[in-house]
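JOB MANIFEST
job_type = single_chain_structure
chain_count = 1
residues = 171
[input]
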Amino acid sequence: MKSQPQSDAVAQTTARSTASAGYAPSVPITVYRELAAELQATKTLLDSMNTQNQQLARHNQHLRQEIEQLAQSAINLRQSAEAFQPSWNLPPQSPEAANARSPRSWRPETASPGGERGYVIEQAEPRSRNRSQPSQREMSGVWLVLIIAAIVITAFGAGFLVVRPLLSQDR
């Protein structure tokens, strides 16, 4: 903040320069002092806001890095889960996809009457779903919804417990 003598010196210099130009200043020196004080307060506030903005930018960058790490961990976890889950366990979306994904086994055929040997392709029949039991995918969807609901309820509950004492202090 500028000291009082500095703002007086600025005001007097301005007053002298305008008086030498042939007219007297029409704004009192107290107004200049008030404006200088307001300008200094605004500058201090601006510096404070810039510092706070830099802190928030660093915090934002840190959060972005944590989110990227979390996403990478989720991808790694998914890949690990897919590695342990057999691919034939997935339900087919269409009959063509079922035929394309069904396991095939090749076995040599016994000699034909003409003495030629060949191969027989055996294709496994697609498994029929038992409608009385939900599929693994449906069950994991239910578990996902339940887990998300538990997280949301816990987060809002914790937030409420933290904010409520702060709200009661204001009243």
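[summary]
The mean pLDDT is 75.
The helical segments are 4-20, 29-84, 95-101, 136-170.
exit_status = 0
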